Description:
Chain A is mainly α.
Amino acid sequence: xxxxxxxxxxxxxxxxxxxxxxxxxxxxxxxxxxxxxxxxxxxxxxxxxxxxxxxxxxxxxxxxxxxxxxxxxxxxxxxxxxxxxxxxxxxxxxxxxxxxxxxxxxxxxxxxxxxxxxxxxxxxxxxxxxxxxxxxxxxxxxxxxxxxxxxxxxxxxxxxxxxxxxxxxxxxxxxxxxxxxxxxxxxxxxxxxxxxxxxxxxxxxxxxxxxxxxxxxxxxxxxxxxxxxxxxxxxxxxxxxxxxxxxxxxxxxxxxxxxxxxxxxxxxxxxxxxxxxxxxxxxxxxxxxxxxxxxxxxxxxxxxxxxxxxxxxxxxxxxxxxxxxxxxxxxxxxx
Amino acid sequence: xxxxxxxxxxxxxxxxxxxxxxxxxxxxxxxxxxxxxxxxxxxxxxxxxxxxxxxxxxxxxxxxxxxxxxxxxxxxxxxxxxxxxxxxxxxxxxxxxxxxxxxxxxxxxxxxxxxxxxxxxxxxxxxxxxxxxxxxxxxxxxxxxxxxxxxxxxxxxxxxxxxxxxxxxxxxxxxxxxxxxxxxxxxxxxxxxxxxxxxxxxxxxxxxxxxxxxxxxxxxxxxxxxxxxxxxxxxxxxxxxxxxxxxxxxxxxxxx
Lengths: 335, 256
Ligand SMILES: Nc1ncnc2c1ncn2[C@@H]1O[C@H](COP(=O)(O)OP(=O)(O)OP(=O)(O)O)[C@@H](O)[C@H]1O
Ligand SMILES: [Mg+2]
């Protein structure tokens, strides 16, 4: 038990070290950009993980909230001239409000209906951003979004510096996921996913729990979007497309739902795979498809879910004990 | 402590429960019996707030609690187990019970994110409370097992521990001894008596007549959603309407 725990801690330490050293190892600016964007997507996927992996609600409007965060930063820094940091805060508040309102409406439905409702919300946000030319510049998008303002001596003009900024937020996202998972709130969320009926019976406010998960997920998406705008400096309505939501869903499935490492593993691995397969041009889906099917067939809990899967198989043992094989010694004494 | 007045519930055209009236004294054991499909589980769902009644009132210690959602009923001291025992299968046994302990004093999001002292204290207290509930139902040794992998009798006990962990005044048990053998049933009966000894009031639905006769202070008989008899076990078992219902509606007498 202790051994596994410290192994996990070591893995995280190594990952963090790799994250810190990456810009030094990655000389090519293109690859650094791919890596940074991978981390940004991972932050968004951490959000999806809370609403889907923890509470089991398939939200398909995630890219919409990513877009709200991104456009809030883009517009407030470009049009109003606010500092990136103020705009980031505004993005958090705005996605929180939007998430609360959308959650309030959509969470009245369950299962497929919820998925379709949230997808519709995503489409509406996409259309608003795409068609509201006077505000968002429509198809043209926003360009020359200023880089995040310097904090004291730390400037974010270089891509490396912005990478580290993204890394900080990624660490925060992973930490928040871990902290929530281990807290009573995380337990309540996982309880709701397994049985709403039982959760309610033991006093868990199901609706409030789901709404909290939903709002948290939109805030994560909003922060990821805000970083995206601040990192790249340009932005188009395509970032709010449903296909972006499905990309994030894919990262989560491959990485492992409900785990702390899953979103990061999934976003980086699928991102890397996509890069590698670009050499195959139009045939890349031919390879990508089967790889995904195999991954999901053999690792239904995702890559980060493998240790838990092994543990569970070991618990069951080769032949499961028959029902009531276990004596209840204390009970025998009592009666 | 509990009073149910002219309670009714219809699912579309089907009157699952209609005009049911009875009351439960604090510290007593009430058995609710009736043929299959009589509306017993629906009645429990109504009292526990899982299903909203279409007519009638529910009062708990004088307070009108009609139509309150399940988690608010749990907060007011109503615990229940389900007919088809279910636990959070992916959780360990102790996590199942800790989830129920959380009802009384839980930490907030900030405590979770900042990992405050309050969170730590709370976590220790939750675990301790959960272990106490597990010890009460005598399955403390299974605390770290995954809930889906423990034997059926133990699962029923864990379900009961979850109810106890919410610190209830009223406990509703829907066929908690269903599927248990006579020996296991005896142990469950002893456990139910201990709930009462610890100040809880119990209502249970059961097909096992032996349990009804030996445990209940009061029996409420339901047939086609209506109360057809009410009284002590001895009174009810002599009641012609009850005998009629059971002869007509498929027996319970064989059970237990
Ligand atoms: N959610 C529901 N929707 C529609 N009908 C329902 C629903 N729940 C129960 N019923 C119906 O209400 C009636 C009473 O069901 P209930 O489960 O309360 O019976 P019961 O007395 O608990 O039976 P059993 O002894 O078999 O457990 C049945 O006819 C059942 O089909
Ligand atoms: Mg029933």
